Amino acid sequence: MKYSRYSTSLPELTKRAEDIINQQFKPDELLSMYKNILGLIDLTTLSGDDTREKVRNLCLQAIDFENKNLGTPKTAAVCVYPVFAGVVSETLKGTGIQTACVAGAFPSGQSPLNARLLEVSYAVENGADEIDMVISRGRLLEGDTGFVLEEVKAHKEACAGKHLKVILETGELKSPELIRKACELALEGGANFLKTSTGKVMPAATHEAVLIMLDTISEFYKSEGKMIGIKPAGGIATPGEALNYYLLVQAVLGDQWLNKKLFRIGASRLAGNLYQAIEELATV
User: Fold this and answer.
1) 275 and 73 in contact (C-beta within 8 Å)?
2) What is the DSSP letter of 138?
3) I need a labelling partner for 114 at 20 to 30 A (CA). Which of 95, 182, 251, 281 fits?
4) What confidence tens digit (pLDDT) does each residue in 237-261 have?
């Protein structure tokens, strides 16, 4: 498809985001939205000291968020390094929670492409339902858009039919034009989701970057009829922060995107904080 030129400036994006998120809600409205957001979370641990026990406990936590008395759901997925794919898929078997793995030399992407693809294949063979890959930001900054397109296509093929989330690392791309170009390449390469960040670079998720991504997804949908998902990730820890992204998605793409098939939030602390907020609102 042909995309329109993206000429919105960062200050204009900031103002637009503020206009969308500057809303007041009644407690019952917040409660409903917080419950929905809880079910959209990719509960994540991506630390060098992760252990099988730590990962297994995280999976059990994801399951335990489902509380019939409060009306809360389980999280959408648990996201880990590929070496833990088997632990997650086995622990979550039959729960409906997806096994997600970062793969392809996360978080830098600075490894030979064939090695990156072997990691993707390993994750899928060991039970991953979803792969979160990173693009080669250095190659994009050099202007080598052809390489970025081909690496996304190659990761998509290595996914063997599993969902591919493409991490743009928008904090390193900086300009709206370059973020837009990364979105276009990811969509052309077969991404099922666009994702902001690895969480290892600052700034991570920002309202401005997400608006650019949402606008591109909207244009793609109108042109191609394909609904592509969005995943803000990195630094989203409070219910208020998560709600902002929920409102941005709702404003640009509509209520039809407010489900776990098309909208995820990557986070490690958010789920617990949301659950606590839900408990408090339920007593109001």
Assistant:
1) no
2) H
3) 182
4) 999 999 999 999 999 999 999 999 9
What contacts 18, CB < 8 A, 6 or more positions away?
A: none
This model's pTM is above 0.90: yes
Q: What is the DSSP string of 15-36?
A: HHHHHHH-----HHHHHHHHHH
Active site residue 255: no
List 129, 132, 215, 260, catalytic entry: 132
Catalytic choice (35, 181, 231, 260): 231
Q: What is the DSSP string of 59-113?
A: HHHHHHT-BTTTTBPPPSEEEE-GGGHHHHHHHTTTS--EEEEE-SSTTT--S-H
Residue 126 contacts by C-beta under 8 Å, 6 or more apart in sequence?
82, 85, 86, 89
- The kind and range of the H/E element at 125 are helix 113-125
Could you tell me where the DSSP H helices lie in 126-266?
Answer: 137-141, 145-158, 170-173, 176-189, 207-224, 239-253
Asked whether residue 221 carries a pLDDT value surpassing 80, the answer given is yes
What sign does the dihedral 165-184-180-172 (CA atoms) show? positive
Active site annotation includes 231: yes
**Side chain identity, residue 17:** A
The catalytically annotated residue of 162, 195, 215, 260 is 195
| Residue 156 appears among annotated catalytic residues | no
pLDDT band, residue 120 (cuts 50/70/90): very high
Domains of the chain as residue ranges with CATH: 10-282 (3.20.20.70)
The Cβ of residue 16 has, within 10 Å, a number of other Cβ atoms equal to 18
Name the nearest CA neighbour of 190 among 226, 156, 151: 156
